[in-house]
Write a structure and sequence with these properties.
Blueprint lengths: L11 E2 L8 E2 L24 H13 L3 H20 L9 H13 L11 H17 L9 H14 L11 H8 L7 H16 L3 H5 L1 E2 L10 E5 L3 E8 L2 E8 L8 H12 L8 E4 L4 E6 L3 H14 L7 H7 L3 H10 L4 H8 L4 H7 L10 H4 L3
Parallel strand pairs: 3-4
Antiparallel strand pairs: 1-2, 4-5, 5-6, 7-8
Helix pairs in contact: 2-4, 3-4, 3-5, 6-10, 7-9, 7-12, 10-11
Length: 371
């Protein structure tokens, strides 16, 4: 195991790397590495523009939230290495094994709070990505990593804590808490209804633009048709279309809610859901952060008294942006394959994890076997 202290030198080009790839010699920094040579690398001048374009494609390979998570996890790992007088580069499976052990035992941070197995797996994936981008892959199959991780899973793995599903009756009550006479109220109604009816993730909701190719950071756009709303989304596995039909009444129709928001917010182009400013009288140009969706769901659920049998603290923990997605999966009385398509799941098993009140014993194999 290596035991030298982390270097504090700035980032530089390592001529030993193919093409002069940028190497982060300040591994505690938050800047993400790039496999593309910097402009000052040993490249012919006429390739500078191509290198700039390649760096743009590297950025586009993952979402902003993913890149932020990669940077945060790398910073967490390098800070732990610094405290232990270890170096994070080059990758040492024994060091990584000790790190995930510290995460599982609560010794990786000052608050002594153990990380969940899910968080540890995410941190390990982030380290693998960071090391790969630096041209020094981490061997996750090495016994110091693989065996330790298997032991952590066997010891600490627990069933996932699912968020509460927002059911139709809950959603209607939540909509009633929003002021239809304000821009913020109109926007929030549209977000709740589209998020529920489309089974959308919170990042997908705020990532929508009014039309195609209108912003660089958009994750999709909408098309309003006679029979409903077509949502075109860019996901991890490519593009997909989500069809949102019109509701049985204007008050619960996601299409009407979108049309009303667009009209009164006077949005002609760009991000669909934006910040309301000027004491609620003006709509700004900036796209909403996806955390606003989670805050909206929590706030509206509390105001509507959803799950009033629980304490306010427990209720706040149970609702998030995913509650809308789980609500559609749990309440749509249609063939499961249609729900799977709407949610964009690759398997029916994943869709079933979102169904909070499905009939689990509809198929009784005990009786079917003759018992």
């Amino acid at each position: 195991m290596s035991g030298s202290a982390t270097s504090s030198e700035p980032q530089k080009v390592d001529p030993s790397q193919p093409g002069g790839v940028t190497v982060d010699t300040n591994p505690g920094g938050t800047a993400l590495p790039s496999p593309v040579p910097e402009a000052n690398a040993a490249l012919p001048a006429h390739l500078d523009r191509l290198a700039d374009r390649a760096r743009g494609y590297v950025e586009a390979a993952s979402s902003a939230n993913t890149r932020k998570a990669y940077a945060s996890d790398w910073k967490h790992f390098t800070a732990w290495c610094r405290r232990q007088n270890l170096t994070p580069l080059p990758p040492d499976p024994q060091v990584v094994g000790l790190y995930i052990t510290a995460c599982a035992s609560g010794a990786a941070t000052a608050d002594r709070k153990p990380n969940s197995v899910t968080t540890i797996e995410r941190r390990l994936s982030s380290l693998s990505w960071n090391y790969a981008q630096r041209g020094t892959p981490l061997d996750r199959k090495d016994r110091h990593v693989a065996t330790v991780l298997a032991g952590i899973r066997n010891t600490h793995a627990a069933p996932p804590r699912q968020k509460e599903a927002v059911l139709p009756e809950d959603l209607i009550a939540m909509l009633e808490t929003l002021d239809r006479g304000t821009l913020r109220g109109l926007r929030d109604r549209a977000m709740l209804l589209v998020g529920f009816a489309g089974g959308l993730r919170r990042s997908e909701i705020v990532g929508l633009d009014l039309g195609r190719d209108q912003t660089e950071d958009g994750r999709g756009w909408i098309e309003i048709l006679d029979k409903g709303l077509l949502v075109i989304l860019r996901g991890k596995t490519g593009w997909r279309e989500v069809e949102i039909g019109r509701g049985s009444s204007d008050t619960t129709c996601p299409v009407v809610a979108i049309e009303t928001w667009i009209k009164f917010a006077r949005i002609a182009k760009g991000p669909l859901f934006r910040r309301v400013r000027g004491q609620g009288k003006d709509v700004g140009p900036d796209r909403l952060n996806d955390r606003e969706v989670a805050r909206l769901v929590k706030k509206a659920a509390l105001a509507a008294g959803v799950r009033g049998d629980l304490s306010e603290g427990d209720r706040a923990e149970k609702f998030s942006g995913h509650s809308l997605r789980a609500g559609l999966a749990s309440s749509a009385e249609v063939d499961e394959r249609y729900v799977q398509k709407q949610l964009g799941h690759a398997s029916a098993e994943m869709t079933r994890k979102y169904q909070r009140r499905r009939d689990r014993f509809r198929v009784n194999l005990t009786k079917a076997s003759g018992l």
